[in-house]
Design brief:
Outer membrane efflux proteins (OEP), 3-stranded antiparallel beta sheet, 8 strands, alpha+beta
């Protein structure tokens, strides 16, 4: 075997030995954090039937409200919301970065063709050599390659860290989706409750007008006073003034809903301006603590961020060990193109290089300490996220239960006050009570009716908040339908500017 090829074989043997060592990854191995979970919630013990029902609702909990308009708006928002689309693009960018890092595991190869002419100085020796041609034509082709042997796992740990970042980005997008669904459903039920309040206000205005007419009638019969007429007139005008704030709120909510779906404000105004009943209040969604751990995007994201931080420790530790690189250069050269592919024109080099850290003033060990501290902070953040999630579920459960009782009480109060108002008007018309009794009954009735409407809204918001708290809503939505369209004409114009 010719000597050059023997040298090459020896170098390759050394490289293979290095590759056998490539399975040695330094740094800690990631273990998912464990949390001691309660068997059930303190506010409500879940039954198997309730858990089964909630699991069936997880994919599309908004359908439990039995409102086709809300369902249509949710579909529009999932398809067109800009926050969701932005999160999708960031997820694609994170995946691209992961693939860039993964490319470091493979040889980096470039072609190096060249052709030209060189001129050399003829005055470097004295006296000049007669007949020396200072022009040199040359042709060259070849390859240059560099391969970093990931002996101690720096690149592989970097890939692990970026993959964890991709996973965290997935959970970030899911969290964005949950926040979108919660805000959209909340705006929608608030709009319908505001329309109900506007209907109550119109009924109160009508009742106040009837009371004014009754007061004028009693006054003309000589049984009333101008004070009573003025009080009735003031009450009517006060009730009339309640319409404009409600109309403003309804319009603003309609605009907000349109923007959440990715449309211009006012897109759904004609449809949403038509009053509709409040959506149905779904039965109490109940889940086990383990279901919350499995479904809450913020918990899942915190766990992935802990995994990312753990992998960063491995990257930092690997920097304490040698970097091994295999550079290769293959560049045949010749002054005559027909000799370019002959054996005598061959020029190549194959090396095995190592960079061994010796002294960096403590910088590398400080990086390891920093990475370990960041990982511990990420672990504690995970534990804190779990606690906050459980608190949110517990808070929503107790609010759901108490608002249910409160709304029932307010409903009975509204009925009783309406009955009292009817009796007060009859007695006033008969001259048996003063107008102050009528006025007091009117205000009590209007207040009770509005409080009942607000109580119904609170129950709907409790249901929305509870579904969000247990992490429902992302399970039935595709991870990302995002694409990166390329406008070739626009790209060409932009290229011409540079």
């Amino acid at each position: 075997m010719p000597a050059p090829w023997r040298h090459l074989a020896g170098m390759l043997s050394t490289v293979l030995s290095g590759l056998l060592l490539a399975g040695c990854m330094v740094g800690p191995k990631y273990h998912q954090p464990e949390t001691a979970l309660p068997a059930n919630w303190t506010e409500h013990a879940a039954t198997p039937d309730e858990i089964a029902r909630t699991q069936a609702q997880m994919r599309d909990w908004w359908a439990s409200f039995h409102d086709p308009v809300l369902t249509m708006l949710v579909d529009q928002a999932i398809a067109g919301n800009y926050d969701l689309r932005i999160a999708g693009q960031r997820l694609l960018a994170a995946r691209g970065l992961r693939d860039q890092i993964a490319g470091g595991l493979y040889p980096q190869i470039d072609a190096t063709p060249a052709a030209g002419i060189q001129r050399f100085s003829t005055t470097l020796e004295y006296p000049p050599l007669a007949g020396v041609n200072s022009d040199n034509r040359f042709w060259q082709y070849g390859l240059t390659a560099s391969w970093e042997l990931d002996v101690f796992g720096r690149i592989r740990h970097s890939i692990e860290a970026q993959q964890a970042a991709v996973d965290a980005g997935i959970e970030q997008r899911r969290g964005t989706l949950l926040a979108l669904l919660s805000e959209l459903a909340g705006d929608y039920v608030t709009l319908r409750a505001s329309q109900l309040e506007l209907q109550i206000a119109d009924q109160n205005i009508q009742a106040a007008g009837d009371a004014l007419a009754l007061t004028n009638k009693v006054y003309t019969q000589g049984l009333g006073t101008t004070l009573q007429v003025a009080q009735a007139q003031g009450e009517l005008e006060t009730e009339q003034a309640t319409r404009q704030p409600l109309q403003t709120r309804i319009a603003q909510l309609s605009h907000a809903i349109a923007v959440l779906t990715g449309q211009m404000p006012g897109t759904f105004e004609a449809m949403l301006d038509r009053p509709a009943p409040l959506p149905d209040i779904p039965p109490l969604p109940v889940a086990l603590p383990s279901m919350v751990i499995a479904n809450r995007p913020d918990i899942r994201r915190a766990e992935r961020q802990y995994a990312q931080a753990t992998a960063r420790i491995g990257v930092a530790v690997a920097q304490l060990y040698p970097d091994v690189v295999l550079p290769l250069s293959f560049t045949p050269q010749s002054s005559m193109i027909h000799e370019l592919f002959t054996a005598s024109s061959l020029a190549w080099s194959l090396l095995l290089q190592a960079s061994v850290p010796i002294y960096h003033g403590g910088r590398l060990s400080a990086q390891v300490r920093e990475a370990r501290a960041n990982a511990e902070a990420a672990r504690l953040t995970y534990q804190q996220t779990v606690l906050h999630a459980f608190q949110e579920v517990e808070d929503r459960l107790v609010a759901y239960r108490n608002d249910e009782i409160r709304t029932s009480t307010l409903h009975r109060a509204a009925q009783d006050n309406a009955l009292a108002l009817d009796r007060a008007r009859r007695l006033y018309q008969a001259g048996l009570v003063g107008f102050l009794d009528v006025l007091t009954s009117e205000r009590a009735t209007y207040t009770a009716e509005n409080l009942e409407a607000v109580g119904q809204l609170a129950r709907l918001e409790d249901a929305i908040g509870l579904f969000t708290a247990i992490g429902a809503g992302w399970q039935g939505v595709a991870l990302t339908a995002t694409t990166l369209p390329i406008d070739e004409a626009l790209q060409a114009r932009m290229a011409q500017r540079h």
